[in-house]
Amino acid sequence: MKISLPFAILLLGCSALALRAADEAPKGGGYEKVGFDRLAAFTYNAPEADPATPNAPPPSGANQIPDKIKALDQQKVAVTGFMLPVKMDAGLVKEFLLVKDPMLCCYGVMPKLNEWVVVKMVGKGVKPLMDVPLTFEGRLRVGEMYENGYLTGLYLLEGDRQTETKG
What we know:
Layout lengths: L4 H20 L7 E2 L2 H4 L27 H4 L5 E14 L2 E8 L16 E6 L12 E14 L2 E16 L2
């Protein structure tokens, strides 16, 4: 069977589009791949607290978060990044920062607030693996997070499991 060149090009183009759509679509279990290309694609400037009113609630900058990012709140997502452990228990990491680039954590480059995700693993935790890209699935929370009056992040992933290690 002969296939004309224009038809073959059309067929290849459709295959590439289908692969790209499959890569962006939710995988088995309904987890949508969400990358830092989306999470960090906007400018967020942390609002300054008024030192004259120390007991006032912290100011909000939530209006800077785009609606398409806010729409990810409470959704099941898969995020790939680099682990920076924060809390460990029995040799396993229970809480960590997932950063977009390994240069953001250990080498002095301060990441922007939308360039990391705080991950709190549900269950017993995961093995500590640094300097390799890792993918975690879970439920994402989008919004300003405060601890002791300080803004600590915009994203929290309630981690269900680790799915990939690349490298």
